[in-house]
Specification:
- The chain has helices at 5-27, 118-126, 128-154, and strands spanning 32-36, 51-56, 64-69, 72-81, 87-90, 107-113, 160-162, 168-170, 179-180, 187-189, 192-194.
- It is α+β, with helices and mostly antiparallel strands.
- Among the domains are: 31-116, Umud Fragment, subunit A, CATH 2.10.109; 157-195, no CATH class.
- The strands form 3 sheets. Strands 1-2-6-3-4-5 form a 6-stranded antiparallel sheet, covered by helices on one side. Strands 9-10-11 form a 3-stranded antiparallel sheet, with no helix packed on it.
- The longest helix is centred in the last third of the chain and has 27 residues, at 128-154.
- It starts with a helix and ends with a strand.
Length: 195
C-alpha cells in the first residue's frame, strides 16, 4: 500500500525533527532542561502534574528557579542570593521560606515555562509501556490515513461510471424508461442502478 507523497514527507520530517531534538536534549547540547513537578508547593502558579522548562544558568531573584537539594530537583521561587554564596527559596504555597540554604552552584537555572498537566504525560512516555503505546497509536493513525487515501484514490469521479476493470466511461444520462429516487440520487437505467 503506497502512502500519498505529502503525508510521507510530513511524517519523515516530524520523525527527523523529533529524533534530532531528543538527541540534542539527551546529550545536553540544548540550554534547556525539563522536569516534572510532583508536589503542590508552587500552587497555584505551578500546580502538580506540570512540567517546568528551565533555561540553564540564567536566573534572578524573584523568579522561579530549579535547583538540586540532596539529589532531588526542586522548583521554588528565588527569594534572595545570600552573601555567603547560598540562596533562600520559598514555595508560593508555603507560608515560610525553605529550611535549607543550598549553594548557588546547585542552581540549574530559571523556569521559562510551566505547561500544566504535561508532567505526567512526560513520565508516562518515559516508561517502556508509554513509549510503546505512543508508537502503536502513531502506527494506527498512519494505517488509517493510508487506507482512507487508498479508498479515495479507488473511488470513481462524480461525473463518471465504472465500466470494465481499469476503464472509466462517462455517466449515461437517464433514458425515458428510467425512474429516479429522491432528488435524482439514484437512477434505474437499462436494468441497473447508476449512483
Amino acid at each position: 500500500m503506497k502512502l500519498p507523497k505529502p503525508f510521507s514527507i510530513v511524517v519523515a520530517l516530524v520523525l527527523l525533527a523529533s529524533a534530532t531534538a531528543l538527541g540534542l536534549y539527551e546529550t545536553g547540547s540544548l540550554p534547556y532542561r525539563v522536569y516534572v513537578v510532583h508536589t503542590g508547593s508552587m500552587s497555584p502558579t505551578i500546580p502538580p502534574e506540570s512540567a517546568v522548562i528551565v533555561k540553564e544558568g540564567e536566573y534572578r531573584a524573584g523568579e522561579v528557579i530549579s535547583f538540586t537539594e540532596h539529589g532531588t530537583v526542586v522548583s521554588h521561587r528565588l527569594v534572595a542570593i545570600n552573601p555567603d554564596g547560598t540562596i533562600t527559596t520559598k514555595g508560593d504555597a508555603n507560608r515560610t521560606a525553605d529550611p535549607w540554604h543550598v549553594p548557588v552552584s546547585n542552581v540549574i537555572g530559571g523556569v521559562v515555562a510551566a505547561p500544566r498537566h504535561l508532567g505526567y504525560l512526560l513520565m508516562y512516555v518515559k516508561t517502556p509501556q508509554g513509549g510503546a503505546s505512543i508508537l502503536f497509536a502513531f502506527l494506527c493513525l498512519w494505517q488509517i490515513w493510508a487506507l482512507s487515501a487508498e479508498m479515495i484514490r479507488e473511488e470513481p469521479s462524480a461525473g463518471a461510471a465504472v465500466g470494465p476493470p481499469g476503464r472509466v466511461r462517462p455517466r449515461p444520462r437517464p433514458a425515458h424508461d428510467a425512474f429516479g429516487e429522491i432528488a435524482g440520487a439514484r437512477f434505474w437505467v437499462r436494468g441497473r442502478f447508476w449512483v
